Known about the structure:
Low-confidence stretches of chain B: none
Mean pLDDT of chain A: 84
CATH topology of chain A: Rossmann fold
Strand order of the largest sheet of chain B: 3-4-5-1-2-14
CATH class of the largest domain in chain B: Alpha Beta
Number of strands of chain A: 5
Number of domains of chain A: 1
Number of helices of chain B: 20
Structural class of chain A: alpha/beta
Distance between the termini of chain A: 40 Å
Number of strands of chain B: 19
Mean pLDDT of chain B: 83
Largest sheet of chain B: 6 strands, antiparallel
Largest interface: A-B, 24 and 28 residues
Radius of gyration of chain B: 40 Å
Helix content of chain B: 40-55%
Radius of gyration of chain A: 14 Å
Oligomer: heterodimer
Number of helices of chain A: 6
Strand content of chain B: 15-25%
Strand content of chain A: 15-25%
Largest sheet of chain A: 5 strands, parallel
Helix content of chain A: 40-55%
CATH architecture of chain A: 3-Layer(aba) Sandwich
Amino acid sequence: MDGAQDRKRILVVEDEDNIAVALDYLMTREGYAQQRIATGAGAIDLIRETRPDLVLLDVMLPEVSGYEICQNVRLDPTLAAVKILMMTARGSAMERRKGLAMGADGFISKPFELKALRAEVRRILAGEPAPLEADAARHA
Amino acid sequence: MLDRLGLRVRILLFFALLAAGAVAALVGGGAMIARRSDIALAPEVVQGLLVAGFAMIGLVVWVWFLFDQNVARAIESLSTAIRARAHAGIEHDLAAEARAARYLGDLAPAAEAVTRTLVQTRSALAESVARETTRLAAEKSRLETLLADVPVAVLLCTADHQLVFYNGQAVDILGGGTAPGLDRNLLDYLRDGPIRHAYDRLAGAGDPDQASDLLCATVAGGRLLSGRMRVLRRRGDTTQPGYVLTLRDVTADIAAHTSRDALLIEIFDRVRRPAANLQTVIGVLAELEGQGDAPDLSAALMAEIETLTRAITDLGARYDAIQSDWRPLINTRSSDLLDGLAARFQAAGLDLETESPDLIVQVDGFELVAFWSWLASRIAEAGIARQFRIVIEEEDGPGALMRLCWQGQALSVGRLDGWLTQTLSRDTGELTARAVLQAHGAEAWPEAARDRNAVVMPIRNARRAGRRPPPIARRVVYDFDLLSKARNAAVADTRLDDLTFVVFDTETTGLAPSSDAIVQIAAVRLVNGRRVETEVFDTLVDPKRPIPPGSTDVHGITDSMVVGAPDVVEAGRQFHKFAEGAVLVAHNAPFDMEFLRRQEGAIGKSFDHPILDTVLLSAVVYGQLEQHSLDALTARLGITIPAEARHTAIGDTVATADAFLKLVPMLRARGLETFGQVLTEVRKHGRLLKDINAD
């Protein structure tokens, strides 16, 4: 396992405590440095401040939506290196398209299988392109 | 007996008798001289008598010829012309006939004066009737337009379900196989049970204000139709009343309901079981918490959660895929949608440019126009832009992207999402922008590019527009006289006016039915003594062999024109359906019938219709000595065939139909009213053509 200073840093933006606890456990176990914020309002400031490698971003957040946070991150050139994986409980093909159009690097629907989440996090952090499935979903 | 012979034959007999009498007188005179003088006649005398006899015969023949040409024939021609003007409404003057009758003294000028007066009286009468009916016609036209454009199919039928009235929507709904036509039976198009039950119920109740709702299905296309029936007011104790039927295609509605119900049932089914199992497992875990012998239930938990997850993901995707089917979206031409948008933007004082390939998009046009114009207004109110461009572009799959573009400040997704929760306008009530997106199974988001900003909305279903189909004739077709028509199963006893006729013509690769083939069939329907303009059958036929250039010179049909046309079996089947229950009429019918009857086996239908031939009808009316070609007949009846239509199947068909309609009253004037009477008379001219009704 890498040393603490080399560990990839993940910010979880999630207002539901139950899933946040589970994600905290999972990401820590995977060897990532994990931090969580429960509201959308402070998320963008925290991202600017901590510059995480990946933001696990829920779409449905109180006050500021995940789409808006994603758009703001992408509009800030200094945050170009920050990857974003959006999560939503609705997860229709159209929402996926919207998320990707806002600049997300990946989109995963709740409920998800843990191995699918793990794989998606690894893919994004490795800078690999999205699988064809996401592309195909554009026309579903 | 003599009165049954024609005038010219009777005069011929008269002169023959005269010649025979003269010769007999000469022979008798010679014989008397020989007996009195008791000596044999000198050969010179006999020769003299022979010469005198031949001279007399020659003189009689010469006088007969002059009489036939200048009197008998002229009288016949004059009387036929007068009849044509009296019964067929021909208005040409009698100049040609008058020239032929110049030795008949004042007869021709008198006949001319009578017919001129007749024409003038008829014109004056027609003018006053026309004036009187103009107002009614205008009202009728308004009603027709109204009924043609109502969005449901409207049909009026007799008690025995014959069509008396139908509008354009009825053609759309019922026309899965053959398009509906006047005097056709509604039950050829709809399954009969619900229609008969509703009719029996309503006719039994006898209350014209009562209506019956029904659900029925088409015979051909399996469409489901929701309808309402109302019987007409009874016109007498004995007559069964007709009925009005309105129909709406609910196939898609029912399919959407069914799919929604099925999905809902499946959701409960697939979620209930793992949820119940989870509750049990978690209950056991809670009870055993802290005990050392607690079994490992994590595998059971994971399996149930996995099942639940898969069910929710799968069902969610299916809900997503079909939710827009639950709302009726209409195939709309992109140009029409953009026209509507341009009008709304202009009304809102906003500039709009549009750009789109020619697409058919599946949308609710009204809601979408309201959505984009509302969004542009919001952007304008926010001071972002007032000049817009809407672009529709195709995607790789079955969809399209619609973009509202402007130059200037970008729009944040948060601001857009906030706006989307608002109602669109006072005109659209409580309709929110988000509801419009949901109805289209779509989302909207801002998009930024170097030179412009935009809001994007995907359209799920779009395709390239093909050639614009010919506009559906949004007309109503009707003949209310059919309601009072007495039906007689025996065609022979039926008056010609009460029969339905299908006049037809074929074009072929040549003249030999054994080796040539049909390349075109055209037909029109005549109902209640008029041609129904909308009920036309006209199809090219692939003869499956080259069309000789000589035949192409006649009818203009080339090999390339018949590529993709139905073959004779398919075209014959369609024509048989079109002509069902009608009397067939053709000019020189044996020729066309021979080509059709040779295909009966392949088509699986018999062309055993009663048949009338306009060649023979012309012979009945004008006598066998006249010309009976289609050109000669139509010229006599004052019918003009446009040069470009002559020798096309439809051109000749329409000309034959018009000629037939003019011949019918002329036959009636001769006392030939029923089909049987006409057939008996026609058969006297059998030597002209083969009797095809005897087949």
